[in-house]
Design goal:
The chain has a single domain (about 1-115), classed as Phosphatidylinositol 3-kinase Catalytic Subunit, Chain A, domain 1 (Ubiquitin-like (UB roll), Roll). Helices cover about 20% and strands about 25% of the residues. The chain has helices spanning about 25-35, 100-115; strands at about 1-10, 10-20, 40-45, 75-80. It has a four-stranded mixed sheet, covered by helices on one side. It starts with a strand and ends with a helix.
Amino acid sequence: MDVFLMIRRKTLTIFTDAKNTTTVLELKKIIEGFLKIPPQDQQLFNKDNTIMVDDRMLQDYGLTSTTTTAQNPATVGLAVRDTADAFEDLEYTPYSTADLADVMKSQEANGQEQSS
């Protein structure tokens, strides 16, 4: 079954899916396909911000088809090795929580009135 993942690093978000039996190393190879960063230069973190071990499977971290969906993917943190040969700190840039602009609010209300 598919496990749906949202891999986050700073302002970057990658949506992907894998099997619950996929190893962390295999997931790093998937990420390498997107970012061209070799697996040994990647560090993945589970929801508790603990480092995920290469030879363990996603299901070992509670990432299964029953805990994730396409509409509600699990977040996996990504840190990469920097030039000083150390891994950067795990960092997520929060998504915007800004309210809709007044112009958009009126359009949204108009759309709801028309559909009634």
